[in-house]
Amino acid sequence: MATAPFNPKALVASAWKIIPFFQSRNISATVRLYTKELGFTLGSEEPHFASLFAGPKAASNIYFSLCREESEFRASSAMIALGAEQHEALYAGLLAKREQTQDGGLSESETFKIVQEIRNEEWGFRQFSIADGDGNQLTFFRFLEGSNGEELWGGGEHLH
Predict the structure, then answer these.
(1) Which domains does the chain have, with CATH numbers?
(2) What is the reported pTM?
């Protein structure tokens, strides 16, 4: 019996999710920031690991592992696509939270910084970026033209 030639493209075409793996210097502070300030949902939390997610079927999932050795710490980054209206509302809300937290006495590990203000990019994205207290960066984007995922999660019905 002849074996089909190895075709990695056909095999990875079944991919349905990607999960970036970030490092954290303090898992509890990371969980508080991502759930309380950024709206993620906690999947699981252990002393050395956390899983946080957003979107339908946890489409945007990030794993965090505790890094105890400062010399081994490496910040990471990921991009998260949002619906057009939600993208704009999230940015406005984070701007307001930034104003509140500057006077709120939160520790640096419990806050975020907007490291790129919202702007349109020549490659067709409208995006902004934040960094958590460890320097991990999330870029939230939407397409300037075409689909912004509404067909996946039902459009604006999830707005609060």
Answers:
(1) 18-67+75-151 (3.10.180.10)
(2) 0.84
